[in-house]
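Researcher: Sequence recovery benchmark, item below. Answer with residues only.
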């Protein structure tokens, strides 16, 4: 009938138009997906992650991924930690991280922990349901490039063998038939050396001229060997502010390191603030600390006998620039030369 035909035609046209619309919308969706990464990836902010690939001799395989993000925790993160999916048909090779989280997060195919840290552990198990085989684990060493760890060690719990995952990219082990094999990964960061207990005490005053020595306690939390440099900031006019290395100890361990102060005019200035520094490296990090102390007595006591009198004034006069080489201790007004003004000031400031 004509009316029926008319409606049939309308329905067909409507269907075609609808299909066209739907397909064009789908096309737009696909395009926009291709152009902009899904928002989940940008907010995940995974600093580093590594995938371990497991392959057994017969060709069965599996993989697990671990890593760190500042937005993840060492506990369950629904957003980051992925539970282990069901295994395939027998025989299967199933690798998964084991945790003390409630199910289904007690077995994970991806475990992301909090970044950064100085020590972390991941535990994983390999479950094999076939007969005796050899399993090879491989990973990409460069995946650790952005990690904060200086050592990532793979421990094979049932044996004594372990592998430095930053140096080697695979590990092979015998897997007994229907066996469960446990592993542990321990990641540790190299921590910088620590300096403490400077002598003379930092910012101390009234310090004797000179103190016997400068010393400081130096420790590396990882017991790395260190290079220790003791430096001193000059305070005489022509070299003011220059750092001079007093003593270096190379390849040393945790101990107190010192510099014995020599007899000499540079060290006996009264009422003067001395700055010194300790610079320590464990080969990776530098720890630099600057300390200061202020001597007791008077700046005019140039012969360091705890009195300012005609002797000091006389010595300053004798050492004036026109007669002898510049010596900072006699330049009591710190203007780069020793002359009658310094001698006069010393005389005026006598006890
Ligand atoms: Ca986690
Ligand atoms: Ca260290
Ligand atoms: Ca004196
Ligand atoms: Ca002067």
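Model:
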């Amino acid at each position: 009938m004509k009316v029926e035909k008319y409606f049939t035609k309308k329905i067909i046209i409507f269907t075609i138009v609808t299909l066209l619309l739907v397909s064009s919308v789908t096309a737009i969706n696909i395009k926009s997906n291709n152009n902009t990464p899904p928002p989940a990836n940008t907010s995940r902010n995974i600093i580093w992650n590594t995938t371990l690939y497991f392959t057994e001799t017969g060709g069965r395989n599996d993989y697990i991924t671990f890593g760190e993000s500042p937005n993840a925790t060492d506990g369950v993160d629904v957003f980051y930690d992925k539970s282990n999916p069901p295994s395939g048909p027998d025989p299967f090779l199933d690798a998964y991280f084991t945790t003390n989280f409630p199910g289904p997060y007690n077995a994970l195919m991806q475990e992301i922990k909090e970044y950064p840290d100085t020590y972390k552990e991941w535990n994983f198990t390999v479950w094999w349901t076939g007969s005796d085989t050899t399993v090879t684990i491989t990973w990409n060493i460069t995946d650790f490039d952005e990690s904060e760890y200086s050592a990532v060690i793979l421990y094979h719990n049932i044996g004594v063998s372990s592998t430095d995952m930053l140096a080697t990219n695979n590990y092979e082990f015998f897997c007994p038939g229907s066996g469960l094999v446990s592993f542990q990964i321990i990641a540790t960061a190299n921590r910088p050396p620590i300096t403490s207990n400077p002598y003379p005490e930092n910012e101390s005053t009234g310090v004797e001229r000179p103190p016997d020595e400068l010393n400081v306690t130096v420790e590396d939390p990882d017991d790395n060997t260190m290079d220790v440099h003791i430096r001193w900031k000059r305070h005489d006019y022509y070299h003011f502010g220059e750092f001079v290395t007093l003593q270096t100890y190379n390849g040393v361990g945790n101990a107190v390191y010192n510099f014995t102060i020599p007899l000499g005019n540079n060290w006996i200035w009264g009422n003067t603030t001395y700055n010194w520094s300790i610079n320590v490296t464990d080969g990776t990090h530098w720890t630099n600390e600057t300390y200061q102390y202020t001597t007791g007595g008077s700046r005019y006591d140039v012969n360091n006998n705890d009195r300012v009198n005609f002797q000091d004034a006389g010595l300053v006069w004798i050492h004036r620039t026109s007669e002898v080489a510049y010596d900072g201790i006699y330049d009591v007004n710190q203007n780069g030369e020793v002359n009658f003004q310094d001698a006069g000031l010393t005389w005026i400031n006598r006890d």
